[in-house]
Amino acid sequence: xxRDAYRQRWRQWLNRRIPPARAVQLNQRRIFILxxxxxxxxxxxxxxxxxxxxNYQNSLAYGLTFLLLSVFHTAxxxxxRNLSGLMIKAAxxxxxxxxxxxxxxxxxxxxxxxxxxIACGWPPAPLQIADVPAEGQALLExxxxxxxxxxxxxxxxxxxxxxxxxxxxxxxxxDLDQAVLVYPQPLPGDLPLAAQVGLEDEDEGQRIVGRGAxxxxxxxxxxxxxxxxxxxxxxxxxxxxxxxxxxxQLAGRDLWLDFxxxxxxxxxxxxxxxxxxxxxxxxxxxxxxxxxGSRLEPATGAAHRExxxxxxxxxxxxxx
Amino acid sequence: xxxxxxxxxxxxxxxVLGKAPxxxxxxxxxxxxxxxxxxxxxxxxxxxxxxxxxxxxGLSFQRIQFTSDLLPGDILGTSVFDKExxxxxxxxxxxxxxxxxxxxxxxxxxxxxSALLEAMEEGQVTIEGATRPLPEPxxxxxxxxxxxxxxxxxxxxxxLDRFLMRLSLGYPAHAAEKALLQGQGxxxxxxxxxxxxxxxxxxxxxxxxxxxxxSDALIDYVLRLVEATRSQPQFAWGLSPRAALGLLNAAxxxxxxxxxxxxxxxxxQAVLPAVAGHRLRERADPSGHxxxxxxxxxxxxxPAL
Amino acid sequence: xxxxxxxxxxxxLLVAQALVILPHLAHLPLWFTGLxxxxxxxxxxxxxxRARYPNGLxxxxxxxxxxxxxxxxxxxxxGLEAGTALLMATFVLKLVEMRTQRDALVLIYLGFFAVVxxxxxxxxxxxxxxxxLPVTALLAAMVGLQQSRLAMQxxxxxxxxxxxxxxxxxxxxLLFVFFPRLGPLxxxxxxxxxxxxxxxESMTPGDIANLGRSPxxxxxxxxxxxxxPRSELYWRALTLEHFDGRRWSQTPDLPVLATDSWQAQGxxxxxxxxxxxSLQRWLFALDTARxxxxxxxxxxxxxxxxxxxxxxxxxxxxxxxxxVVRDPELRPTQQRRALQLPAGNPRARELAAELKARYxxxxxLVAALLTRFNQGEYFYTLKPPTxxxxxxxxxxxxxxxxxxxxYAGAATFVLRAxxxxxxxxxxxxxxxxxxxxxxxxxxxxxAHAWVEYWLPERGWQRVDPTFAVAPERIEQGLEAxxxxxxxxxxxxxxSPLRYRDVALLNQLRLAWDNLNYxxxxxxxxxxxxxxxxxxxxxxxxxxxQRLVIxxxxxxxxxxxxxxxxxxxxxxxxxxxxxxxYRRFERLLARHGVARRPGEGARDYARRAALVLPQQARQIxxxxxxxxxxxxxxxxxxxxxxxxxLRALRRALPWRLSRLDDGETTR
Lengths: 320, 305, 666
Known about the structure:
The complex is a heterotrimer of chains A (320), B (305) and C (666).
Chain A: H1 2-17, E1 23-25, E2 32-35, H2 37-55, H3 59-83, E3 87-93, E4 96-97, E5 101-109, E6 115-121, E7 128-132, E8 137-145, E9 150-153, E10 157-161, E11 168-174, E12 179-183, H4 197-204, E13 215-221, H5 233-237, E14 243-248, E15 255-258, H6 266-282, E16 287-291, E17 294-299, H7 302-313
Parallel strand pairs in A: 4-12, 15-16
Antiparallel strand pairs in A: 1-3, 2-11, 3-5, 5-8, 6-7, 6-10, 9-12, 10-11, 13-14, 16-17
Helix pairs in contact in A: 2-3, 6-7
Chain B: H1 2-15, H2 20-31, E1 36-39, H3 46-57, E2 61-65, H4 72-76, E3 77-82, E4 87-92, E5 99-103, H5 110-122, E6 124-127, E7 130-133, E8 139-144, H6 157-160, E9 165-167, H7 174-182, H8 186-192, H9 199-211, H10 216-231, H11 241-257, H12 265-276, H13 291-301
Parallel strand pairs in B: 1-8, 1-9, 2-5, 5-8
Antiparallel strand pairs in B: 3-4, 6-7
Chain C: H1 7-21, H2 31-47, H3 56-74, H4 80-97, H5 101-121, H6 125-145, H7 154-178, E1 202-203, H8 205-211, E2 217-224, E3 234-240, E4 242-243, E5 248-249, E6 269-275, E7 289-291, E8 297-298, E9 304-305, E10 314-320, H9 332-339, H10 346-358, H11 362-375, E11 379-380, H12 391-399, E12 401-402, H13 404-417, E13 422-429, E14 432-434, E15 439-443, E16 447-455, E17 459-463, H14 465-469, H15 471-475, H16 478-481, H17 503-524, H18 528-539, H19 544-567, H20 576-590, H21 601-611, H22 616-631, H23 638-651
Parallel strand pairs in C: 11-12
Antiparallel strand pairs in C: 1-5, 2-6, 2-15, 3-13, 4-5, 6-10, 7-10, 8-9, 13-16, 14-15, 16-17
Helix pairs in contact in C: 1-5, 1-6, 2-4, 3-4, 4-5, 5-6, 6-7, 7-19, 8-13, 10-13, 12-13, 20-23, 21-22, 22-23
C-alpha cells in the first residue's frame, strides 16, 4: 500500500524532472550519483589505513589515505562527467510477436567527449555496455520480453556509468517514450470451412488466388519452383537479389479471415488469425480480415500484412 | 520584384489548376537553380506545368520525348556536313534551350539518360572535342513514369541526386478537375500567356535567393537532418553533401517565396519531402520506394530547435 | 555473479603485486619469494588455460602451509612482523584463486593495505616515492576492471590512473596539512628491533671504538641562530657512574629532577633535534637542557629521557643554558656514587695519591692529569690492544693507546681515587655541519665519552681527556684524528662519508642528506606538535572552529575548482535563447501543449495558439521574437525574449503541474 503510493510519488517526481522524450540529454538535473558497494568497501579500507596511520603515527600512511580519499573524490567527478552530456535517443523498435523479445534500439551520442562503459537496460535484466567515442555514437539493442499483445510501453530505462574506478555509480532513469507493437502469438491451426472459400479453390488447382498472369503486381523474392521467365534480371544485376515479377490473377471471390467464424477464446482466435495472416502473406495470396469493429479489405503486400497484424494486436484495446 | 514573383505564381496556377503547393515547389526549385523531376502517370499535367513555367518566366522551351531508341546525339545535337561550305556545321540539339522538358526520361536507355544528366550537371556540352556552353539560365524538368511500369529504365541513385527536387502532381481535386473540364483548353491559354519576368529579373531573383540569411541554428538543423539519414539504421544510405546544400538552397528559395529574408526550420521542412524523398531508400525494402516514409520520420523525429 | 577479469586488469594486477611485494622482500622470510613465484606461475598458467583453479583441498593446504611457515619463521602469528607476513601471504595466495572481479578487487584493496605496511617498516623518502608506482599500478588495475574501451589497452589505462592521481594531489595536500593528527588510539605491535647499534646502558672501552666504525646517522640538530663551534658540541646521552673494574654502567633508577631545581642562567641555545630510532629512552641534548617534548623528563644527572623507547624518528625542541651551575651541593648518596671505586689498579691509585699530594685544588689536579696525557706517550687509536687484569693500570702505564672511552674511564678512576667526585658521560661529540641545510648531522662514529668532576659551589665541570691527547678529534672530527692510522670507516668502503674530500661527491651527499632531513622533519615528523606549530605560525591561533573552516572551506573550494576544470560547464550546449525557449516550452507543456521534437517554433506556436486562443497574441509574439532572434541574424537584446515570456506567463492562468497531453505522440 505504502510502497505503491511511494512508487507513484517517485514516478511523478521523475516525470517532472526527466519528462518523457524521444531524445534525452543527461545533465545535472537528471544524474544521480552514489557510492557502489565497492566504494563502501573502499572507504572501509581507507578507514583501516587511517587507523594504521594514527596508531603508528605514520605520516606516509596518512598521506596514502588522503591520496586515495582524494582519488575517490576525483573519481566522483570523473564518473559524473562520464555520464553528463550524453545524448540518449530512441532509434526505433520492430514489432514482435508475443513470446519474443522486443529489441529496442538505442542510440547513445556524444556531444564532444568520450563516454566510457555506459550501461543501459531495464533492471533486473543485465545492462548492456557500450563506449561512445568523442563526437560519435554507439548503438545498443536492449531486449524486453513481450508477454502481452498490444502496445508494450517501455519503462524508464536505467542508464548508468561506474567508470573509471567502479567506486561510484552515476545513473539516470530516462523515459524515451518508446513503445512496441506486440502481435498475437501465431498458433497453427485449421480454418473452419466457412472461411475457406478461397482455399478450396486452391485445393482444386483451378484458380490460384494471388498468382496469375493478368496484372503486374510487383516484385517478390525468388522461391524454388518459380518460373525462370519471370525472374527480374535487371533487379538481379542491380544487386537486389533474385526477384520474381509477380503477376496476380484477380480472384473471383476474396478470401476472408473472419474472427466471428472461429471458436475458442479471444486470444486463441487472434493467434490463429495471426498465423493465417502470415501464411497467406507468404503465399502472396490476397485476403481480407474481418474483426468485430474493424474490417480490412482484401489485398496483398507488406503494408496489408502490417495493417492486419496491427489490427489483431490492438483488438479490444482502447487505442485500436 | 516580390510582386512579380507573386504574379508569376498566380499565372501558373491559373493554367495548372489545384496544384498550388507543387507549383510553388517547382518555382522554388527553379529559383534555387535546381533541376526538377516530376514523377507521375501520363496525363497528369506534367507537360502543361513545364510549358507554363517556361512561358511565364520568359524562357525558351524545348521538349525532348525520351524513347528507347533515342540517341545522345538527338539530345545534344550533331555535326552535319555542309556541302556548300564544305565544312561540318553543328546543329544544336533540343538541349540548347533555357527550359528543357525531358519527357518520360526513364523510357530511354541509360546512355541517353546520362548524356542529359551530364549536361545538366556541367552546364555545358562537349561534342566532338568542342565545348559549347548551355544557355543561362538553364533548367531541366524531367518527367518519369512510376518505376514499376514495365519497359522502363529506372534512373540510378547517382543520377537522381542531380535533381534538386522530385514532385508528384497526382490526380486533381474534385473542384479543380471540374474547373478544368469547364474551362477553356490549356493550350489556348498557354499560347496567350505573356512572359512576366525578363531574364535580368530572373537572375536578380536567383541572386536574392542566395542572399536569404541562414543562421547557425538553422544550419545546425539541416546538419541534424542529414546526420540522421546517415546514422539511423532504417536508412539504406544517407544524404549526400550535394543534397544538403540543395536542401539549404531550396529552403532559401522557399523563404523568399514566403517573403522572408531569413530561413526558418519550417522552410526546410516544407521542401524536405521534395528534396530528400527521391534520394532516400529504406534499408528493409530493396525494390525502392519508402523514401516518403523516411522523410516523414525525419520531420517527426529530428529536433527542429 | 560478477563478470570475469579483463586481461589488462590482470596484467596490471600482476605488475602491481610485484611492485607492492618488492620493498617487503627484505622483511620477509626467504621462502616467501618461492611462494610468490609459485603463485604467479600458477596464475599465468591458469590464464594460458594450462592449469586449473585450485580446489578446496588445495586451497586449505596452501593456507595451512603458509600459516605454518609464518609461525615457524616468525615465532608466532601475532606481532607486526608476523602480521605483515600473513598479510603478504594472503595477498599472494589470493592471486591463485582470483576468479571474479570481486576477487580482483579484494586483491587490489589488500595491495593498498600492503603499501601502508611497507611504510611502517620503511618510511624513507625513496621508499615513499617508490610507493607511487604500486599505487598507480593498483589504480590502473581498478580502471582496467571497468568494461570500457580502455580494457583493451594497457598504456591508456595506466595514463588514466596517473591522471586520476595527479588530479587528486591538491586535495590530498590540503588534507595532509590540515587534517588533525591524533595520538595513538590504542597500542599496536611495533616494528621489532633490527639490532640498531648505538650507545648502550653500560660500556667497556672497546664498545665506543666499535661505534667509531659505523657511519649510521644518529640525529640531526638545527640551531635557531648561529651554530656553536664544534668543540662546544658535547651531546649528552647518559652518565656512567658505576665502575666494576672493567665496565662502566649507569646507576639504575635515578630520580627525576624537579623542573624548578635549576634556574635558567646566561645565554641559551635553541635547537630542534630529529632523532633516528634508537630503541632507547634517552634523548640527546647539550648541557643544560630543557625540552617541550610531552612526557620527556630530566633525571638527576641532567640527561633527558623519553617516556618510551624511541622506535620512530622523533623530533623535539630543546633549549640549553651552558652556563647553568649543576648541583652546587652534592647529597651524600650522590657523593658516594661519584666516588665509588672497585678494588684493584694499585698503580693508578698511587698516581692519584701522588697528584693529590702535589696539587691542593682539584682544578690543578685535573690540569696536571691532562698534561700527563698530553705530554706522555699516549696515542689516540680506534684499534687499542686488548687489556686484561687491572685494565686502568694496563692502559695508563703500559699500552698507552686507546680511544676516548679509555681516556675518560682512566681519568675518572684517577680523579675518584684522588677523592674528587667524578663520572663518565657518554654521548656524541661534534657532528658534520650541513651548510646548505643549516644543521648538524651526527653519526655513530661521533660517539664519545668524556668526564665530569664536581667542585663545591661550582657544581659539575666538564673535562675531556681526549682533547689533551688528540685535540683534532674535538676540533675537526674523528677522521682528522685518525688520519695517520687510516682506520676511519675502514669497514665501510662504500660509505660516501669516506669520500668527503671529493668535492662534488661530498656536495651531493650533503644535499641528499639535507633532503632527507627535510623529509623527516616536515613529512614524517608532521605529527600533532609539528602540525600545531605550523598552523599557529600561519593562522595565529588554531582551534576547532578554524580547522572546520579551513578544512571544509578549502575542501569545498578545491572540489569546485576540480569540478570546474573537469566538467567545463562553460561549454554548455544551450545558449541563452534556447534556455528561454525551453522555459516557454515547459510553460506551454504545463497547459497541455507539448512541443513535438520535429516541430519548429512557428508551427508549435500556431498549434498552441489554437489550443489557447486567449493567449494566442502573446504566444505568437514570443514565437516571432524568438524566430527573429534565432534565425534572422539580427542582433537584439535577450531581455526582449524574456519580456515576451513574462507577458505570456502573466496572461496564462497559474498552474504548477503538467496537464496530461491529450494526444498520444505515437
